[in-house]
């Protein structure tokens, strides 16, 4: 008997050899073996004597769906989740796919914008880049010494926005238990955060009561790296950006604008760069100012 004919095992419904199944699914036997190894499509039966794989005709739709989803460069874990969901609830699976693809398109748009920025930067069109991403006005401000409730995490760039929102939300909720937030929250970068470098980043919420903050951090925050420290009085060089400009590469251009200003003025940074979030993020529109990109000087 070869692998290319249908067989019947133990009087059960007809099973198809891997060759016959591959032909009907319009896939290769190699692809089916890969799907099995990845846990996406297991054979209905494997002959213990010769190792031949057999499939049911009812598995053809799943096999084709897996093949199509792989063409979208979808993560394997998500493919497995989606094909399982599709067998239970087609509309829900469709919605999950739509959400995934919306995220793909958003990331592609961001990369396209970053590519345009880099092309301009490499070609020396700095004035064009300034027009494209906004003319950044750099100013200085003095901030007093403050007690801050903090949460620190090593994170890559793709996880950073979600972590910033979640961590500041947790810290602000904690601060409300002992007097509230006394100034704009901010995020300090102790090292570069990119797709290759994971910081760490430190979310900071100014609070009034240091003793109460330390007690709260001890009780609630060990697992998340929560702590309390005193942020010294500083002078900051900063530029203010809109909600739309918080995205890459606009935010990169904003950091570079402050660095260029310091270089022109002969001023050196005396501390770590930071983002100061002074507005209600959810309520803000794309053109509303929400954040200061700042360097201690």
Automatic annotation (TrEMBL):
Keywords: DNA-binding. It comes from the Bacteria. GO terms for molecular function: DNA binding; DNA-binding transcription factor activity. Gene3D superfamilies: 1.10.1660.10, Regulatory factor, effector binding domain. The keyword DNA-binding applies. The keyword DNA-binding applies. CDD domains: HTH_BmrR. Residues 15-85 form the HTH merR-type domain. InterPro entries: DNA-bd_dom_put_sf, MerR-type_HTH_dom, MerR_fam, Reg_factor_effector_dom_sf. This is MerR family transcriptional regulator. The lineage of its organism: Bacteria, Bacillati, Actinomycetota, Actinomycetes, Kitasatosporales.
């Amino acid at each position: 008997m070869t692998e290319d004919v249908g067989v019947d095992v133990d009087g059960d419904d007809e099973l198809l050899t891997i060759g016959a199944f591959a032909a009907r699914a319009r896939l290769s036997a190699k692809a089916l073996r890969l799907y099995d190894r990845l846990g996406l499509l297991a054979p209905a039966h494997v002959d213990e004597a010769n190792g031949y794989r057999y499939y049911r005709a009812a598995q053809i739709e799943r096999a084709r769906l897996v093949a199509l989803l792989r063409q979208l460069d979808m993560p394997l874990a998500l493919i497995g989740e989606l094909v399982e969901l599709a067998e239970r609830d087609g509309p829900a699976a469709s919605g999950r796919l739509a959400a995934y693809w919306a995220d793909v398109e958003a990331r592609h748009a961001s990369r396209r914008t970053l590519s345009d920025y880099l092309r301009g930067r490499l070609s020396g069109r700095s004035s064009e880049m300034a027009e494209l991403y906004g003319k950044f006005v750099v100013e200085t401000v003095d901030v007093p010494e403050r007690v801050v409730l903090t949460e620190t995490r090593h994170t890559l760039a793709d996880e950073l926005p979600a972590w910033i929102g979640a961590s500041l939300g947790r810290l602000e909720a904690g601060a409300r238990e002992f007097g509230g937030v006394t100034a704009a929250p901010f995020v300090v970068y102790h090292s570069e955060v990119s797709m290759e470098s994971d910081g760490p980043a430190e979310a900071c919420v100014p609070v009034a009561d240091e003793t109460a903050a330390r007690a709260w951090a001890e009780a609630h925050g060990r697992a998340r790296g929560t702590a309390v420290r005193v942020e010294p009085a500083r002078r900051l060089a900063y530029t203010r950006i809109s909600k739309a400009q918080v995205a890459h590469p606009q935010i990169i251009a904003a950091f570079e604008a402050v660095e260029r200003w310091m270089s022109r003025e002969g001023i050196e940074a005396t501390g770590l760069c930071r983002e100061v979030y002074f507005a209600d993020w959810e309520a803000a529109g794309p053109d509303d100012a929400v954040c200061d990109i700042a360097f201690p000087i």
